[in-house]
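So, is this right?
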Amino acid sequence: MDRIIHREKEYLHRFNLSRTRFHFKEIFDNRYAKMSIDVLKDLSEEVIVSADNFYNKAETLYWYFMQTEDMGVAAEDHCSKTIFDIQGSYDIFSSFLRAEITGQEG
C-alpha cells in the first residue's frame, strides 16, 4: 500500500511523460499472489476475504495502467479515486489481520 500511495506522483509523472508502463510491475508487486495454500490455510476467513478484496482492487488499478489510453488528468483522477477505495480495503484487511495476530478486535 505504501508504494501505491507514496510513489503516486512519481509513477504518474513517468507514465504521463513517457507513456512507459514497465515501472508499474514493481509498484504493484504483491506477496499475496505468491502465497501458498499452506500459508492461507492458517488464516481466518475474514482475513482471506479482506486480503482478496484489497489485492483485487490493487490489481484492478495495475490492469488499468497497463491497458489505458487515458492521459494526464484523466489517469490522475482515476488513480486518486481508486487509491481511496484501495485504502479503505487495506484498512479493513489490516484491522482483521491485526485482530488475528493479537487476538484482539479493532
Remarks:
- Residues 2-102 form one domain.
- Residues 68 and 75 are 8 Å apart (CA to CA).
- The chain is about 75% helix and 0% strand.
- The helical segments are 2-6, 8-18, 24-27, 37-40, 45-67, 72-102.
